[in-house]
Specification:
By secondary structure, the protein is an all-alpha fold. The protein has helices at 2-23, 36-52, 58-77, 82-111, 117-147. It is elongated and about 50 Å long.
Amino acid sequence: MNAFVCAGAGFLLAVLWFDLMFDVQTLPGGAGVLPERTLSSIAGYYRRVTTDARPMNRLVAAAMLATAGLLIAEIAVAEYAAWVGWVSLALTLAAVGLAALHTVPSAVRLGGRTGSLEHQSELARSICRDHLLCFAAIAVVLVVQLAGT
């Protein structure tokens, strides 16, 4: 079971890494409106991965659900210390919940280039913050899974 959880977490980390390659464009310069070139780059990426990539974009959601399901099974089987499964599940559910409730809807809106440039800039920055949090959470899941088994 652990190998499959690690594979799911590794896949999610890879997806987050690709997202962050675009998101980091929001980091220099602080607040305010991002340059059009930056917004266009980030928005174009999110349009491709959230809207234009159907049905392949469903793979990420499937990996999230599968990883959470495998963690529940890992807890039920009780092959490892209980804290390994529970910490991993809590962090995974936190990252998946943030993605489902905030990150993906924000990415869809940004990909559609709706709203003012100020609003689009804030969406891009909030997506970057979300992805940094999710990356940290899933990286910890991977470390806990590898160290605790």
